[in-house]
From TrEMBL:
<dbReference type="InterPro" id="IPR050256">
    <property type="entry name" value="Glycosyltransferase_2"/>
</dbReference>
<protein>
    <submittedName>
        <fullName>Glycosyl transferase family 2</fullName>
        <ecNumber>2.-.-.-</ecNumber>
    </submittedName>
</protein>
<feature type="compositionally biased region" description="Low complexity">
    <location>
        <begin position="1"/>
        <end position="14"/>
    </location>
</feature>
<keyword id="KW-0808">Transferase</keyword>
<dbReference type="InterPro" id="IPR001173">
    <property type="entry name" value="Glyco_trans_2-like"/>
</dbReference>
<dbReference type="Pfam" id="PF00535">
    <property type="entry name" value="Glycos_transf_2"/>
</dbReference>
<feature type="domain" description="Glycosyltransferase 2-like">
    <location>
        <begin position="85"/>
        <end position="242"/>
    </location>
</feature>
<feature type="region of interest" description="Disordered">
    <location>
        <begin position="1"/>
        <end position="23"/>
    </location>
</feature>
<dbReference type="GO" id="GO:0016740">
    <property type="term" value="F:transferase activity"/>
</dbReference>
<dbReference type="InterPro" id="IPR029044">
    <property type="entry name" value="Nucleotide-diphossugar_trans"/>
</dbReference>
Amino acid sequence: MATSTIDSPSSTDTFHLPSSPSDDVATLDYAPAIEPVADESQLKTSAEVSYADDVLDRIDDTLNLIAEAQQVASGNRPVTSYDISIIVPVYNARESLPEVLERIEEVMPSSCEVIVVDDGSTDGSWHYARGLMPKPNLTVLRRRRHHGRGSAIRMGLRHSTGRVVAIQDADMAYDPADLLGAVWPILENKADAVYGSRRLRRDTRRGISFASRLSGRITTLVANLATGMKISDMESSHKVFRGELIRSLELRECDRGFDAEVTAKVARRAKVVMEVPTSFEGDFLDDQFRPSLSTLMQTLRGLVQYRAA
């Protein structure tokens, strides 16, 4: 497996921005989200979490398949495949979600589908996404309860059709425009996976706290040692994969361990992994960007466990 770094394209002239797409929408609308577990100690073991998540996956997927079958039968949802599938995991991101979706529509080509997966939000994110209907090239899915970013991404993967699958968080810490530089090498069959690296952007490095940089360096070092890769930012949320590759992986992690699991498993299957610069404007004082010892240990455990699996 080869790892290399490429520069992002300076413009989007090679893409045709969407004008009047004709594809319809799939949406789910069912019971309100269950409140997230306040005390994480209530989830006793990772095995119990995986089992519960699998059960909910089956319920959610069954409801989604029924909804999609009804739309296909009525002619409201043509069976369509796309060049690019962008999965947007959402959890309580009502304020930033509109900007993220507008930005994706602005910079991405018309052959792109957006899959929004609400992970049991309680701030109105789901109601906003549902209110966008009908909108072309958009699929909106909902988890019955909050189970974590990895769980939401896995659901999005099961409903993706693109030759390329990209992950874009809903908090706008990462600019969707940076995904263009990561998508292109895979569309041109030059890479199997492309990681957006915050460490290839000097201005971004200055905006990340020391604790975050230290945690990221440790996990990335272990990732490189465990997988033989040569990447600089394993924990970056901007990750792009060849669709056939990422959909073939049996992914299990629900939350913090997802990046470690997908990195370890992709390393075993991918021939070429590239990196491109990506910007980052997250507030590191926010809890979601604040590293913890438990998160670090979970990531390290995942790298070793899934690499050996």
